């Protein structure tokens, strides 16, 4: 493990992230070693709930009066510190069906910038202008239409959650804010999808441009689903389903197979489509399968026979679009791509 970690750290890009999952037995030693190699200020520990207090293990726990093991750790090491991670939000409650409009002609980066400007009462006039320009580009489509176009089916809870960053609803606003909006709307380009108004109390609202000014309380103010319906999971990930995953990837791999949803969160927070993901302990191939479905390039290394028994069959299914399980639906995966594999000689 030590030699492998040293090599991985050396290989990692300056803005890259190394993630190691480890249980209680080895956690303390590994953390100290990684602090030495990577610098303690570059580390962050996340606790992941990996089991339920149910099943056979509880019989033994109840007999012995012990404590069941439900968690594992992720040790994150960022070469340039722990920052710029785009961690997917988790639902606060069930999805509110009023959140049914998707913003198009924009992207995650732009919406993140816009939300930061809205959240900052000390914003400058230039930032208000920038927010207005970002809103002007918006095209509002229903989630139903966008999801059917992208996945072929209606929006599932998973799809809504993964797309919360670009899903919105509109609500009525105060009569003062409406007066400001009526005045501001005279000044915007005729094809603008939305615009912003800043109130005397320095609140910044995004307004959908095509509201009916004749109505006393038109639904015009744009609320972003990820502000209201989802929450940052922080350093305690307890929402990922860990039971009933035996069928993921079609394998019968029992020793440490990870849920695809966990790899989706890790790969999603640290990489963009086209980036490289390397797993030096491939096992049943969860990392490669999820990386592939998310449009990342990947390398997996495995010393066992798993390449033939697990990795090739699993990735072939992914490429053929035959793997319907795991995160396939959430990421809208349909199939495609390919891979090569090599048997490497022992080091001299
Ligand atoms: C716990 S499993 C990984 C499970 C994987 N994350 C998954 O979801 O299926 C660890 C794997 O690392 C492999 N392994 C252990 N030491 C290795 C080494 N030095 N080089 C390559 N693979 C190794 C083992 O054969 C085993 O398949």
The radius of gyration is: 24 Å
Number of alpha- plus pi-helical segments:
13
Count of β-strands = 14
Overall mean confidence score, pLDDT = 94
Topology diagram in text:
Blueprint lengths: L1 H10 L5 E6 L1 H15 L4 E7 L6 H9 L6 E8 L11 E2 L9 E4 L3 H12 L5 H12 L2 E4 H9 L5 H6 L4 E6 L2 H11 L8 E5 L5 E5 L10 E6 H4 L1 E2 L4 E2 L22 H11 L5 E4 L6 H8 L3 E4 L5 H15 L7 H4 L17
Parallel strand pairs: 2-12, 13-14
Antiparallel strand pairs: 1-3, 2-3, 4-11, 5-6, 5-7, 7-10, 8-9
Bound molecules: S-adenosylmethionine (SAM).
S-adenosylmethionine binds next to loops.
Key terms:
348 residues, alpha+beta, 4-stranded mixed beta sheet, 4-stranded antiparallel beta sheet, 14 strands, elongated, binds S-adenosylmethionine
Explain the overall architecture.
This protein is of the alpha+beta class. The chain folds into three domains: 1-84 and 233-238, no CATH class; 90-231, no CATH class; 240-343, no CATH class. The protein has helices at residues 2-11, 24-38, 56-64, 108-119, 125-136, 143-151, 157-162, 175-185, 225-228, 260-270, 286-293, 306-320, 328-331; strands spanning 17-22, 43-49, 71-78, 90-91, 101-104, 139-142, 167-172, 194-198, 204-208, 219-224, 230-231, 236-237, 276-279, 297-300. The strands form five sheets. It has a four-stranded mixed beta sheet, covered by helices on one side. It has a four-stranded antiparallel beta sheet with strand order 6-5-7-10. The protein has a two-stranded antiparallel ribbon with strand order 4-11. α10 (260-270) packs across α11 and α11 (286-293) runs parallel beside α12 (306-320). The protein starts with a helix and ends in a 17-residue tail after the last helix. The mean pLDDT is 94. The structure holds S-adenosylmethionine. The site of S-adenosylmethionine has 16 residues, from loops.
